[in-house]
Known about the structure:
With 295 residues, the chain is α+β, with helices and mostly antiparallel strands. It has 2 domains: 55-258, 3-Layer(aba) Sandwich (Glutaredoxin), CATH 3.40.30.10; 260-295. The chain is 42% helix and 17% strand. It has 8 helices and 12 strands. It has helices spanning 11-35, 85-89, 106-119, 142-156, 172-182, 221-231, 239-247, 261-294, and strands spanning 60-61, 74-76, 82-84, 94-99, 130-135, 165-168, 184-189, 194-197, 200-204, 210-215, 249-251, 256-258. Strands 6-5-4-9-10 form a 5-stranded mixed β-sheet, sandwiched between helices.
Amino acid sequence: MTRTNPGLPSYRSRATRLASLGALALLLVHFPASGLPASGLPAFGADTAGDRPAALAGVGFDQRLNEKLPLDLVFKDEQGRPVRLADCLGGRPAILAFVYYRCPMLCNLVLEGLVRSLRALPIAPGKDFCVIVLSFNPAEPPALAAAKKLSVLESYGRQGSPEGWHFLTGEEGSIRRLAEKAGFRYFYDPRQDQYAHASGLVLLTPQGVVSGYLYGVDFPPRDLRLGLVEASSNRIGSPVDQLLLFCYHYDPATGRYTLPVLRAIRLGGAATLAGLAGFIFAMLRRDRRRDSRAS
């Protein structure tokens, strides 16, 4: 004769309740994917030329994502030798910085921010990618480029990377054409004898296609690393970088890699479901053992 314990719920009833709990959790996990409203916040970096002083209306970065740059353009390297943009890339992803070497402040801050970020990366210019710095002042000679390269490399402090850095000068037509293709807008103010310009970096694929922008003068190492890994089509970087690229999304409005809310919710939901499945499995095993002992 089979004995039953009236104080314990049956195995089947417990299993039914746990299955219902799992279904409810599944609904909650998938609900945010279609139930959350889109953010109404304005994007940082949106075109606000109407709010700027008239003198700065022509300054900024226009998004030229997936734009292929003219790789046949010829500039001069630090020694005054002609060099094509394609030769600078050398089949590697690249960081492109528009500066001018006599800039009294902003360009120096851009290069200092770049060096500071690169020092924190395990990947290096010359081996994994290259750095292309182009003066948009056609009057600057290669000697200024050579002096700036020496200063930057001393600040960078790593050995064996000079061939990965290209400090270029060029003619007005070539400079303008490259700047327009990359979305970099600037102008010369003859009264101040200075250039008004935006600050930031352009990330390029090995084929010379614009893959991203980093704005400002401070470039988080994580954003720079992920941008280079993405530009390389995952040919450089570690498995951890590949995972981070899955988790983080490039936001062209801010020039940053951000963790999307929905993706974070889905990842958290997946972890919750995994934990819940383990809990259900453990509870079912315990109830099965109790029912066996009660039989």
